[in-house]
Amino acid sequence: MINTIAYGLTIGAILYIISIGLSLTFGTMRIVNFAHGFVYTIGAYLLITSLPMVRDNFFLAAVIAVVAVIPIAYAIERFVIRKLYGVSIDYAIIATYAVVLIGVDSIKWIWGASPIPLSDPIGKYVNIFSVTLPMYRVLIIILALVIFGVLTVFFKKTIVGKIVTASLEDKDAVKSLGINVDKYFSIVFVIGSCLAALGGVLYAPITSVHPYMGMMVLLISFAVVLVGGLGNIKGTFVSAFVLGLIMAITGRYWGPAAETMVFVVMGIVLIFKPVEV
Amino acid sequence: MLSVKNIDVAYGHARVLHDISLELEAGSMVFMAGRNGAGKTTFLKSIAGFMKPIAGSISFLGRDISGMAPEKVALMGIRYVFQDKRVFSNLTVRENLELAAYPVKEKTSHAIEKVMSIYPKMDKFLNLRAGSLSGGQRQILLIGRALVGDPKLLLVDEPTEGLAAGTINDILNVLAVMKGKVSMIIVEQNLSVVGMLAEKVYIMREGKIVQTCTSKEEIADKERLEQYL
Fold it and tell me: At B86, phi and psi to the nearest 5?
């Protein structure tokens, strides 16, 4: 059982890293961004391309992959997302879904459609409470905690964080102070995309890398965001870990229902706490 | 200072402002009055850059600002104080002022001093979440926040709406302190407030300015003004 919980915490950690960007873009821009799933996938593929360039040093390749996502994320924000501010949410869904389709086909064209397996980059185990766990998974959980701490400080202490916090509440009021909100939305979007790519990079050795890997993760991430609250850093953190644990525990007893259970929980939460978009 | 010439403004196909013109001199305080839906807020939003006129022009200090982005209008020295007491409730009072000071490169301490000069009691609330303030305190914070960076024109939308009589006096005092120092266009339904502070009152009805009151007698004549509300 402890193994299952540890697995759930790993899934929760990755879900948090992916979902936080989605939560911020959803919360600030009110845009349902399906392209987030593509960024997650491209992160994993950029990792695969980078690995031979740095003699299979996983951590260096991971940094390269995340940094390489910045221009891609900026291009998506500049040429797609920015056109969608203030328009109907339907347009955002269609436009960002188009980005996913173009992206997936581009990935198939460049890297092929076959799944690419990756091995555990550390390959060592640690003993916690008499249970042997892969060190890589423990590191992912620690990394999620560090990201949560850094983001909390960023939003509470930096001026950019405060502008984004204020924009989540009242974008027009921020504009009326003379602040170009769109510029800060771009920053948030790129940070969120880098985190999504990091999620793809971290999850690649746990599963295999394939062009559609972002699709299901994206839907689960939306569930995390809706349960945790749009733009709510702490809520997303708690929601990701709770849903990660629910997936792992359900999967232990009834594998096919693991992902379904996430949406059941989301449905129950939405009944009692509807989301205003 | 501000020259609005024959502007028309529409929400989609619905035209809500028709051929509105207004001239504002530096340091003056004018009021806009009229029934709900008369177009007062839309008029302020058009000046502040939140609505783009489909006809006519708005110029400020000799520069055409029609359709300019709100953040650029704000940096030119026009600040819009929204109705509904829209403070950033998740930030502290100090952080609200810090945000106002940031784009105009003013120190937060100066911004705080500015608010204290119009409402010294704010000192006690600086580290509280703005969402925990009363309606009147929120309104004063909003006006104080808009004063950061020494704007030349304030557009204040319904500053006393929904406030108790005692609190309205606080707002009145704040507006009186600012009178003459910064130009103001204030949308207000409370005719007592209008009577005490206005130098000129524009009455709006169905998207048009139907009456302009300039003499003290006209402005103080509540019964006459009331027939337009």
Answer: -85, 75
